[in-house]
Specification:
Strand content: 15-25%
Shape: globular
Helix content: 25-40%
Oligomer: single chain
Radius of gyration: 24 Å
CATH superfamily of the largest domain: Alpha/Beta hydrolase fold, catalytic domain
CATH architecture of the largest domain: 3-Layer(aba) Sandwich
CATH topology of the largest domain: Rossmann fold
CATH class of the largest domain: Alpha Beta
Distance between the termini: 41 Å
Number of domains: 3
Number of strands: 15
């Protein structure tokens, strides 16, 4: 297994009134944790960890990792585990370390109760753009349901679908945010586009181990992705051994184009000027397109096709030199439809960035490669790109859980065909929804 660079930050949740801080009791490091730390240190080249000034030098077999001037006294309970950095970080109630961590060792380390865990997985040297940044929040009372939701947000600007965060926490679910600050570039270097879903799956397994070491077993793991995050989740749903019991893919691009880069070029030329939105601004003057498409295309052409001198909207893969075509083919971001877990595709009929038709083209692949009871496509009439805090998002998350845990298959009610020949019906759970007017696209009817 490749090793991944991980920056860990344990941020204690609760009162941070620094004027009345008392020094907690010091206790000896448990032998089992001490052994795990020593194994971690030795396996992960601990002498070369970033920012480890002040750490006790080897040999480590007496105290494990001890704070400076506390050797022989163990560690401070409830402030941090034996993953201890320096006194300045302790004063800020923030414990950080940067290490090369094998997953098999990392899963043995515990964290304090009532804490949020933040971790950073850097890209390998040959995959500099495959970095990922995670935040885990475990609400009080989580042990009553033992469910973990993992959100992959949009790429540009770390856009969170705040609705999934709030829905999960309001229902007592733990939630992990995969905050990929450079996801807009993850397709641009060293084939990291295919590596990223695997890296994300690895991180989910690692954090699942943390939760189980500190609280209780994680009974179910659900994924939710927004925009390009949904495109990544679509790929994760195809992984052998995917850690997710089911996935909600929200406003993600589908499978109609060769990959995300050719889709962006297609979108710059044709996206929001096509019906039913001919009156909207041209993509190149829309802030969303400047962030989502223009910047990525600009960066890609500079890095991977520097000889191209034309307009971004006129860039066509098939007209470029063979080496550029081969590079793009190697970076194919589209899944083939061979799902390894259940997935609900949630799309807005008013979405100009990832139209329902693009998502439907991926469902077409699922028709030929997967069991049809593994996926559904829901299109909402009243939403564009992103659902944020909406009844449709909350309902879809609940329907997904019921599908997995209660075998309540998302039903298809009164069926009708739209003007394009697609067969639709009102979805179970949405029949009384006054806002979203969800429709479910019947799996076997997409042409």
């Amino acid at each position: 297994m490749k090793r991944a660079t991980v920056f860990l930050s344990f941020v204690l949740i609760g009162s941070l009134v620094v004027s009345s801080i008392s020094v907690p009791k010091q206790e000896a490091i448990p032998a089992s944790e001490n052994a795990a730390l020593i194994a971690l240190y030795n396996a992960a080249n601990g002498d070369n960890w970033y920012g480890n000034s002040g750490w006790k030098p080897p040999p480590l077999h007496t105290d494990g990792f001890a704070m400076p001037k506390t050797e022989g006294n163990g560690y401070i309970k409830d402030k941090f585990t034996a993953l201890i950095a320096n006194a300045e970080e302790l004063e800020n109630h923030r414990i950080t370390a940067a290490v090369w961590v094998p997953e098999s060792v990392f899963g043995n380390i515990t964290i304090p109760a009532h804490a949020s865990l933040v971790g950073y997985f850097a890209g390998e040297p040959d995959e500099p753009h495959a970095a990922t940044y995670f935040t885990l929040r475990i609400p009080e009372g989580w042990e009553s349901n033992n469910r973990l939701w993992v959100e992959q947000p949009a790429g540009q600007g770390n856009h969170l679908s705040i609705g999934s965060w709030l829905v999960a926490l309001s229902r007592g679910r733990a939630i992990m945010i995969a905050n990929t600050f450079d996801l807009n570039l993850f397709a641009l270097a060293c084939n990291s586009a295919k590596t990223y879903p695997k890296r994300m799956a690895q991180a989910v397994r690692v954090y699942k181990s943390f939760i189980e070491n500190n609280f209780a077993a994680v009974n179910r793991v659900y994924g939710v992705g927004f925009s390009r995050g949904a495109t990544v989740m679509n790929l994760v749903a195809h992984l052998e051994g995917t850690p997710f019991d089911a996935i909600l893919s929200e406003s993600g691009a589908g499978g109609g184009q060769l990959n995300i880069l050719t889709y962006l070029a297609y979108g710059l030329k044709n996206g929001v000027t096509k019906a039913p939105h001919p009156s909207l601004e041209l993509p190149t003057t829309s802030p969303a397109w400047i962030l989502w498409a223009y910047q990525t295309m600009y960066a890609y052409l500079l890095i991977s096709d520097p000889s191209y001198q034309g307009a971004y909207a006129n860039w066509v893969l098939e007209e470029r030199p063979q080496d550029v075509q081969q590079l793009l083919t190697r970076k194919n971001l589209w899944a083939d439809g061979n799902l390894k877990t259940k997935i609900i595709f949630l799309s807005g009929l008013l979405d100009p960035l990832a139209p329902c038709g693009e998502t439907a083209s991926l469902v077409t692949k699922c028709n030929s490669k997967s069991q049809q009871d593994n996926y559904r496509l829901y299109c909402s009439r009243n939403y564009g790109h992103g659902f944020s805090i909406s009844p449709d998002l909350a309902n879809a998350m609940e329907i997904l859980e019921n599908w997995v845990e209660n075998q309540t298959e998302p039903g298809l009610l009164v069926t009708y065909q739209d003007s394009g020949g697609l067969q639709h019906s009102k979805a179970a759970g949405y029949e009384n929804d006054p806002v979203g007017y969800m429709v479910a696209v019947k799996a076997g009817t997409i042409n």
